[in-house]
């Protein structure tokens, strides 16, 4: 079966970039991305592609090329479902905030709504693709909903998890390490798998397209994120030991990373990992393991989160103790708010938690991030519900530029590894600060030697 019309439900960080690249690489396929969020769709349709709702290097060019040709963004969800032969579900699957599994399980209500809507609207056979990250065996639930409509329409369900990382989404989509497609082992299931393989084969080498059964595919996504996050927590755990022993975590990471069995990537000690995926997916993995009575498995992975929470709290604590045990009334500048560089996404960013701890200590925070604005920063802080929005507002100023953020500050904390931070006029920043002038580099990106020569007291992570 050759696919000519694709619909994607969910125009977020995954649905938007993924579909833009499919449309760019498959001009013969009409790709319609739908979302309930009207403002988001309007932004995707903004005539100036620099105003699309997601900042990703290279994305606005891809959208400019394909939009209006074979890429469309719309709020007409039912029409797009009806037309398409293949429907990707790319809606959010956040951690549950209520009921059983609260704080651990993935909330599948948006997924179920999509499945019910597809079941209700479809008049012809469809391939439904799970693009969202889902607990293992979710396809079974989706299948139950789709197979009980009684209207004779037949559905095949595939799992096709997305491995892109934010900040490098376009490059990751253009040159993926692998594409993973899980499906039924029946003949019909294999036909559906082949139809999706053919879509990706327009630009991805077939040797990199891996096909598995549904459950392996669903579980591989959670596993990949758990392994990646575990590496960060592992190096972060050692960063604390480095600080006690005189070892330097950058040197340790380099030394172990040159072992080809370990490899050099994902060994950067930091103020803690953030993002919408790692914590959510590990909590989900822990929940699933517990549900099967596998307590040791659950505890093993749970430790990755415990370590990450510790690393964030430890960073805030270090700022307080270094500043003579009080930051009350002191101005502290934050460079960076996004959870990593080259994205405007702030979900679960370590900066939010460090800010919350420092505000508890009555610090006055002044934040600058190249891509995140005031509304987002304040709403992230308010979402924690630690104090009233008015109280947060009083302690938090969002600066127009880094020099203003740092002017008169007692200390600077680097929370995101934006490249531009390295190239600031650090002498000018130093001259305008209170003395002693402290820098807490939560990403180990600044030139410690140069800053120390200028006069800063420089504190990195793990040295
Ligand atoms: P997101 O919140 O940015 O986007 C989800 C979109 O779905 C929202 O715009 C929302 O309005 C829309 N939506 C929800 N229910 C809907 C419905 N019933 N009909 C129409 N639209 C609906 O989320 P995201 O970051 O794109 O993540 C989506 C999924 O992909 C999640 O399961 C996530 O775990 C997974 N994932 C994310 C990343 C990442 O880097 N963000 C990477 C890989 C996988
Ligand atoms: C992650 C996975 O990498 C991706 O495959 C998946 O599809 C979605 O989740 P993302 O969260 O976008 O992607 O970014 P990633 O590069 O994985 O970084 C996650 C967090 O870990 C960031 O806060 C980053 O700063 C931190 N990190 C990463 C470190 O602290 N040290 C590292 O060495 C690597």
Automatic annotation (TrEMBL):
<keyword id="KW-0520">NAD</keyword>
<feature type="binding site">
    <location>
        <position position="166"/>
    </location>
    <ligand>
        <name>NAD(+)</name>
    </ligand>
</feature>
<feature type="binding site">
    <location>
        <begin position="221"/>
        <end position="225"/>
    </location>
    <ligand>
        <name>substrate</name>
    </ligand>
</feature>
<feature type="binding site">
    <location>
        <position position="443"/>
    </location>
    <ligand>
        <name>substrate</name>
    </ligand>
</feature>
<dbReference type="Pfam" id="PF03721">
    <property type="entry name" value="UDPG_MGDP_dh_N"/>
</dbReference>
<feature type="domain" description="UDP-glucose/GDP-mannose dehydrogenase C-terminal">
    <location>
        <begin position="333"/>
        <end position="448"/>
    </location>
</feature>
<dbReference type="InterPro" id="IPR001732">
    <property type="entry name" value="UDP-Glc/GDP-Man_DH_N"/>
</dbReference>
<dbReference type="InterPro" id="IPR028356">
    <property type="entry name" value="UDPglc_DH_euk"/>
</dbReference>
<feature type="binding site">
    <location>
        <position position="261"/>
    </location>
    <ligand>
        <name>substrate</name>
    </ligand>
</feature>
<feature type="binding site">
    <location>
        <begin position="91"/>
        <end position="95"/>
    </location>
    <ligand>
        <name>NAD(+)</name>
    </ligand>
</feature>
<dbReference type="InterPro" id="IPR036220">
    <property type="entry name" value="UDP-Glc/GDP-Man_DH_C_sf"/>
</dbReference>
<feature type="binding site">
    <location>
        <position position="35"/>
    </location>
    <ligand>
        <name>NAD(+)</name>
    </ligand>
</feature>
<comment type="pathway">
    <text>Nucleotide-sugar biosynthesis; UDP-alpha-D-glucuronate biosynthesis; UDP-alpha-D-glucuronate from UDP-alpha-D-glucose: step 1/1.</text>
</comment>
<feature type="binding site">
    <location>
        <begin position="268"/>
        <end position="274"/>
    </location>
    <ligand>
        <name>substrate</name>
    </ligand>
</feature>
<dbReference type="Pfam" id="PF03720">
    <property type="entry name" value="UDPG_MGDP_dh_C"/>
</dbReference>
<dbReference type="Pfam" id="PF00984">
    <property type="entry name" value="UDPG_MGDP_dh"/>
</dbReference>
<feature type="binding site">
    <location>
        <begin position="162"/>
        <end position="166"/>
    </location>
    <ligand>
        <name>substrate</name>
    </ligand>
</feature>
<protein>
    <recommendedName>
        <fullName>UDP-glucose 6-dehydrogenase</fullName>
        <ecNumber>1.1.1.22</ecNumber>
    </recommendedName>
</protein>
<dbReference type="InterPro" id="IPR008927">
    <property type="entry name" value="6-PGluconate_DH-like_C_sf"/>
</dbReference>
<feature type="binding site">
    <location>
        <position position="347"/>
    </location>
    <ligand>
        <name>NAD(+)</name>
    </ligand>
</feature>
<feature type="binding site">
    <location>
        <begin position="339"/>
        <end position="340"/>
    </location>
    <ligand>
        <name>substrate</name>
    </ligand>
</feature>
<dbReference type="GO" id="GO:0003979">
    <property type="term" value="F:UDP-glucose 6-dehydrogenase activity"/>
</dbReference>
<dbReference type="InterPro" id="IPR017476">
    <property type="entry name" value="UDP-Glc/GDP-Man"/>
</dbReference>
<dbReference type="InterPro" id="IPR014027">
    <property type="entry name" value="UDP-Glc/GDP-Man_DH_C"/>
</dbReference>
<dbReference type="GO" id="GO:0006024">
    <property type="term" value="P:glycosaminoglycan biosynthetic process"/>
</dbReference>
<dbReference type="InterPro" id="IPR014026">
    <property type="entry name" value="UDP-Glc/GDP-Man_DH_dimer"/>
</dbReference>
<dbReference type="GO" id="GO:0006065">
    <property type="term" value="P:UDP-glucuronate biosynthetic process"/>
</dbReference>
<feature type="active site" description="Nucleophile">
    <location>
        <position position="277"/>
    </location>
</feature>
<feature type="binding site">
    <location>
        <begin position="277"/>
        <end position="280"/>
    </location>
    <ligand>
        <name>NAD(+)</name>
    </ligand>
</feature>
<feature type="binding site">
    <location>
        <begin position="10"/>
        <end position="15"/>
    </location>
    <ligand>
        <name>NAD(+)</name>
    </ligand>
</feature>
<feature type="binding site">
    <location>
        <position position="40"/>
    </location>
    <ligand>
        <name>NAD(+)</name>
    </ligand>
</feature>
<comment type="similarity">
    <text>Belongs to the UDP-glucose/GDP-mannose dehydrogenase family.</text>
</comment>
<dbReference type="InterPro" id="IPR036291">
    <property type="entry name" value="NAD(P)-bd_dom_sf"/>
</dbReference>
<comment type="function">
    <text>Catalyzes the conversion of UDP-glucose into UDP-glucuronate, one of the precursors of teichuronic acid.</text>
</comment>
<dbReference type="GO" id="GO:0051287">
    <property type="term" value="F:NAD binding"/>
</dbReference>
<keyword id="KW-0560">Oxidoreductase</keyword>
<feature type="binding site">
    <location>
        <begin position="132"/>
        <end position="133"/>
    </location>
    <ligand>
        <name>NAD(+)</name>
    </ligand>
</feature>
